[in-house]
Write a structure and sequence with these properties.
The complex is a heterodimer of chains A (241) and B (440). With 241 residues, chain A is an all-alpha fold. Chain A is built from 7 helices and no strands. The two termini of chain A are 17 Å apart. Chain B has 440 residues and is an alpha+beta fold. The chains are: A mainly alpha (241), B alpha+beta (440).
């Protein structure tokens, strides 16, 4: 883990800059995690106030993205980082974009949640959404953990979970279609629920992207658009050789 | 004679003996000095050999037994070294044992403990902390705690530098899990982070609030029926006096009960909302003059209720809540001030913020009662407050309303001299006419 050790720079200020921007990314991650869990809670508990709060607080996430972006640009311009540091900065710039998108999806869920709060809640009390929401929240949490620890092994494990999320998404979609065919009066709400499920699925994808940036930082290899099994085999082979 | 000196004499005697033997042998062969030299060389070689074997043993003490040097200074050195070594090992074992005990006891502690340095990096943590915060052994040492525990509330607490009160964080809004974080400063910039699972306490507190809210709500409807009938019955003019009197008392008590329940509901509503209220601009002067009129319209009221409006500042507040707080303060003052006394309402502002005082000339409150006044159902004089029909919840409501507005309640009182209740609102809540003109 060469990059986790940032203390080898002669300039202490440089180190402090890198550490600070990394901490800011993690703080932004924490905020996004909270937004997501609040948004899902707002929907499940039918708490319209909470949903509105989530939608209103999205500006905080956006502000953080802009401020981290500026700081990264400043580091790139003044320090001209190379090798591992450059990869960290590049990964941070990409990560905050994904985090901001997750924030937008959470805003969407919060908004829909506040709208659905006034309607009658379904008999299953959004059990599927609760389940999927939990998996996605866990995935995001672990992705950010692997980013904090720069742990590529853990990142690969988390990226695997995206498949579970995709399967759940399809299952809920099929269920939703049956639901709509049973009684056309359900269509309006079922569509809203589909939006939420879709947003959760997208959040899973963004979390997976963050994992890919971790692998990129640690191994210096771009693994986007590559099958996970291939990535794993190649990285393992490299470690053994 | 000390053993060292004895040893020295023994060694000298042995050296002398060797020299004498060498000299005698030399005499036999006819070369005395050659014999002495040979004896000395032999003696030196023997000493060197002992030194080498001692060095070899010191280098590899564990594997090799001490060299067999029973006599002479070298033997002494070996004994000393062995003794020193043994003493060192004894102390080391003791320290290790104490350390192990310490580690074990902190690991067994029911609370999580994390040791942080000045840069918030994790130096050490116990098992419970790892469990609560999802930290892994070894891998997370040296990492920053705020990178791994990312809850915005915790982050705010960590960077606030205000560690007197613990921060309670709902770890996962889906699950009802609450952790209390408490930081303690020690050493040079080091901090101890204690983590406690307070889910049970928080849940109990929530249950208590729910219970009070539900119970008051459920009690309200049967009570409405009872007071309704009592009202009709008591107003019946043909009732014999021995029934009319108890009926009247029942009616008064039912009115009081309704009031208590209403106040309980207000309190539980206040408790249900967390954080500060936003509110809108409220005209304090107008509210106070209305309150004054209400009091003067009562059948029994103090002779004088003065209004001192020294500021035209408005207050950003929740109007209904503010009204009920001010109403309660004025109500208390009016109740405890005799008909001949006076009550003064004062509203003013300065650099610290806005202030509202209720000054009465009532009997006053003893010092030891003052800190407990805002507790629910706390009574200074049980008999009298029953007689005046108080609910015992008024000041609790005042306290909660003020908390919601970031304000504080100050109570000054001398027995027999009257009391002054002052609400201090922060400057950020003021809506000054200057800024109104500027923005409008």
């Amino acid at each position: 883990m060469e990059t986790a050790d940032l203390s080898h720079h002669i300039s202490r200020r440089y180190n402090a800059d890198l550490e600070r921007v990394r901490s800011k990314v993690m703080a932004m991650g924490g905020l996004v995690e909270e937004q997501l869990s609040k948004a899902v809670a707002a929907l499940i508990e039918g708490d319209s106030n909470l949903g509105v709060t989530v939608a209103r607080d999205d500006y905080k996430v956006n502000d953080m993205e802009v401020s981290i972006d500026e700081e990264c640009q400043r580091i790139l311009a003044t320090r001209a980082p190379a090798a591992g540091d450059l990869r960290v900065i590049v990964a941070i710039i990409k990560t905050i974009t994904d985090l901001e998108r997750i924030g937008d999806e959470a805003e969407k869920i919060g908004y829909i949640g506040s709208r659905l709060a006034s309607m009658e809640r379904p008999a299953d009390k959004y059990r599927e959404i609760k389940h999927l929401g939990r998996i996605v929240a866990e995935m995001l949490h672990e992705a950010l953990d692997s980013f904090a620890r720069m742990d590529a092994e853990a990142a690969i494990q988390v990226a695997h979970k995206d498949r579970i999320v995709d399967e759940e998404y399809e299952a809920i979609q099929r269920q939703g279609i049956t639901f709509m065919m049973e009684d056309p009066r359900n269509i309006s709400r079922a569509l809203d629920v589909m939006w939420v499920v879709r947003a959760l699925e997208r959040i899973g994808d963004h979390a997976k992207n963050i994992c890919e940036y971790v692998i990129y930082v640690v191994h210096g290899k771009d693994v986007r658009h590559t099958r996970l099994e291939d990535v794993e085999r190649e990285l393992r082979g490299r470690a053994d050789g | 004679m000390p053993p060292g000196a004895k040893r020295a004499i023994y060694v000298l005697v042995r050296l002398l003996a060797a020299v004498v033997v060498g000299a005698l042998l030399g005499l036999v062969f006819g070369h005395v000095w050659a014999g002495v030299a040979a004896a000395l060389a032999g003696y030196l070689a023997w000493q060197l050999w002992l030194l080498i074997s001692l060095d070899a043993w010191l280098r590899n003490r564990r594997a090799v037994d001490p060299p067999d040097i029973a006599s002479g200074v070298w033997g002494d050195v070996v004994t000393q070294v062995v003794r020193l070594h043994r003493r060192k090992r004894f102390h080391k074992d003791r320290v290790m044992r104490v350390l192990r005990e310490l580690r074990r006891s902190t690991a067994a502690m029911p609370d999580g403990v994390v040791v942080l340095n000045g840069d918030n990096e994790i130096l050490w943590f116990n098992q419970k902390a790892g469990e609560y915060l999802g930290l892994t052994r070894k891998a997370d040492l040296g990492l920053r705690i705020d990178n791994l525990v990312r809850h915005p509330e915790f982050n705010r607490y960590l960077h606030s530098g205000q560690y007197t009160l613990p921060a309670v964080v709902r770890v996962d809004p889906g699950a009802d899990r609450y952790l209390a974080f408490q930081l303690v400063r020690y050493g040079e910039g080091q901090r101890l982070l204690m983590v406690r699972d307070v889910s049970r306490q928080v849940r109990l507190e929530l249950m208590r609030k729910d219970f009070v809210a539900n119970a008051s709500h459920e009690l309200r409807s049967p009570l409405t029926v009872i007071s309704g009938y009592l009202e009709t019955l008591a107003s019946e003019p043909s009732l014999p006096p021995d029934i009319a009197e108890p009926l009247g008392e029942m009616r008064r008590q039912s009115v009081r009960m309704t009031q208590i329940i209403e106040n309980l509901l207000v309190l539980s509503r206040l408790e249900a909302t967390e954080g500060q209220v936003a509110g809108e601009s409220v005209d304090v002067a107008e509210m106070l003059s209305t309150l004054r009129k209400d009091v003067m319209a009562r059948p029994v009221h103090p002779a004088k209720v003065d209004l001192q409006i020294e500021s035209d500042a408005r207050l950003v507040a929740d109007e209904a809540q503010l009204h009920s707080a001010f109403m309660n303060l004025l109500d208390n003052a009016a109740k405890y001030t005799p008909a001949s006394g006076s009550v003064t309402l004062r509203w003013w502002h300065d650099a610290h913020g806005g202030h509202f005082s209720v000054i009465d000339t009532g009997p006053g409150i003893a010092h030891d009662h003052i800190p407990r006044l805002t507790e629910r159902f706390y009574r200074v004089d049980v008999g009298r407050s029953r007689a005046t029909g108080g609910s015992g919840l008024g000041l609790a409501i005042v306290k909660h309303v003020l908390q919601r507005h970031g304000a504080e309640l100050e109570v000054q009182s001398e027995e027999g001299q009257g009391s002054t209740f002052t609400c201090h609102f922060p400057a950020s809540r003021l809506d000054l006419p200057v800024t109104r003109v500027a923005s409008g």
